[in-house]
Design a protein that fits this description.
Layout lengths: L16 H15 L14 H16 L12 H11 L1
Helix pairs in contact: 1-2
Length: 85
């Protein structure tokens, strides 16, 4: 069973990666979400994405966890994988 859930929107405008990461990690901390349970991030803007993903993954490594790496567009990879069976 695969479940995708909307968590929240954080409007940051044209923010740099460190601001995005601080927003994500801060929201998780505020809401009591264990970062080690995070599997993937889906987002837009590929240049910021790579840095955000690396920074989130670095934070996760501190708690002995990592993001699942299935390429640069994980949402499409997973969707097409389940679509094909």
């Amino acid at each position: 069973l695969v479940v995708t859930r909307y968590y929240r929107t954080i409007l940051l405008g044209h923010a740099q990666a460190n601001v995005v990461v601080d927003g994500i990690l801060g929201a998780f901390l505020t809401d009591g979400i264990d970062i080690s349970k995070l599997l993937m991030l889906s987002r837009d803007n590929p240049n910021v994405n790579k840095t955000v993903e690396k920074m989130i993954n670095d934070a996760m490594k501190k708690v002995n966890a990592e993001l699942l790496n299935v390429g640069t567009c994980n949402l499409h990879v997973i969707h097409n994988g389940f679509k094909a069976g």
